[in-house]
Design brief:
By secondary structure, this protein is mainly alpha-helical. Helices cover about 75% and strands about 0% of the residues. The chain starts with a helix and ends with a helix. Belongs to the CcmC/CycZ/HelC family.
């Protein structure tokens, strides 16, 4: 009797939260869910960006120190934030896919990488546009700038490595290892202005202090940040859906999708 009881206990279905987690990780469910969300994300990105640009370039007052040049920060700061957050997200999903063989996690990591690289490139470019009138030069080998440039190389290295290996499983594993090792650069970027004496200014928004900017400036910055987030989710989901269709081409759910659309 005890043996029967033990066997029944071991074969019991997993708890509901765990079942839901693995259900959402299925490519078919992910595809349907993200396709339904995409129109809302694109619309949100457009509306928030228009509001943020209007607030930042029209409503917000001129800065007393940096004059009109500071307005480039409404684009620079959100892209710089996203460049770091997206790398952490890419590394997280890559490791989840590697360690637990979750197919959709590896595809999501791959989908994040190009957008993360784009955000990093935009952060570097807008930072240079801000640095020229502020510092008098387009580029300095500052700790923050140099570590952000290294982040761009890590993104590009991940993309090159995963595309160079034809076998998807080996490619995902190699990419996950590189992403995990490179994640150490993210805290270096964030804390560089505290650890070293750098030209780059410190954070204007901190959890332990009130924002050191006018309310209209803060509102514009938050709107642009939300717009960047909405765009990032929309484009990453679109790319992940394309990867899912490519990798799952022989599965029944893809065949059903074709029949529904044609």
């Amino acid at each position: 009797m005890s043996h029967v009881h033990s066997l029944a206990r071991n074969t019991a279905p997993p708890p509901a939260p765990r079942r839901r987690l693995f259900t959402l990780a299925a490519p078919a469910r992910f595809y349907r869910f993200t396709r339904a969300c995409s129109p809302w994300l694109w619309a949100s990105a457009l509306v928030l960006a228009l509001l943020g640009l209007w607030m930042g370039f029209v409503v917000a007052p001129t800065d007393a120190v940096q004059s009109e040049a500071y307005r480039i920060l409404f684009i620079h700061v959100p892209t710089a934030w996203l460049s770091m957050v997206m790398y952490v997200a890419m590394a997280f999903w890559a490791v989840i896919g590697w360690a637990w063989r979750v197919r959709m996690a590896s595809m999501l990591a791959r989908a994040i990488a190009p957008t993360g690289a784009l955000m990093t490139a935009l952060a570097l470019w807008t930072g240079a546009c801000w640095g020229k009138p502020t510092w008098g030069t387009w580029w300095v080998w500052d700790a923050r700038l140099t570590s952000e440039l290294i982040l761009l190389f890590l993104y590009l290295g991940y993309l090159a490595l995963t595309e160079a290996i034809e076998d998807p499983r080996r490619s995902d594993q190699a990419g996950a290892l590189l992403a995990l090792v490179g994640a150490i650069n993210v805290p270096i970027i964030y804390f560089s202005v505290r650890w070293w004496n750098t030209l780059h200014q410190g954070a204007s928004i901190r959890a332990d202090a009130a924002p050191s900017m006018a309310s209209t400036m803060l509102a514009a910055l938050l709107l642009m940040t939300l717009a960047a987030w909405a765009y990032a989710f929309a484009i990453v989901f679109a790319r992940a859906r394309a990867l899912a269709l490519e990798r799952e081409n022989d599965h029944e759910w893809v065949a059903q999708l074709r029949r529904q659309e044609y």
